[in-house]
Design a protein that fits this description.
Layout lengths: L11 H13 L7 H7 L4 H12 L5 H15 L10 H10 L5 E3 L4 H11 L7 E3 L12 H10 L7 E4 L2 H9 L3 E4 L8 H6 L2 E2 L3 H12 L1
Parallel strand pairs: 1-2, 3-4, 4-5
Helix pairs in contact: 1-4, 5-10
Length: 212
Amino acid sequence: MFDMDGLLLNTEALYREAIFAACVSQGHEMVDHLRLSLIGTPKDLGDTKLLAHFGDSFDLEEYHAACAEHFDNLCSLDVPLRPGVRELLYLRKRVAISMGVATSTARPKAEAQLARAGILDAFDALVTRTDVSLGKPHPESFLRVAKLLGAEPPYCLALEDSHNGVRAAAAAGMATVMIPDLLAPTREIENLCVGVLPSLTDVASLIAARQA
């Protein structure tokens, strides 16, 4: 089970740039602690945080439109993959492993980004924010992927880069590994994980070793 942004796709830094630019367009200045709190957070909860910080006069519609425009421009030619994605997808050809994606991104955007990265068809299931009632840290996204794959949660490995993602996967009863991107693991997050690894390359190496 994979998260998407910051785990499969090297897009969190691009989102950061787009978010800062979108705030500037309204005469506001984004701050890093707020930006980091938005990682892995569903849009509705993120909007609540934005209004709490900037005030009710903050134009969410204008912000999201500007953010989407900046982000699309940044990845118009290519959506970069995180290290280890290719190794895991290659490994899948040798080992019978079902793979799915659980993302807080809406379906149209998630499909477009995965397609642009060239990996949309590499997964057996895709569950987006559009497909669930409750986003991360609620476990619904991961449980939905497991159901689509016909897998029992305790036998699933969930890979995440965000704190909310780790909370969701752990609440789903899955063995959870954090691959940090912009967020470092806290003591709470470490306790929810079976491990914290530098990259997906390390995950691929461990799986390959177990299959040898």
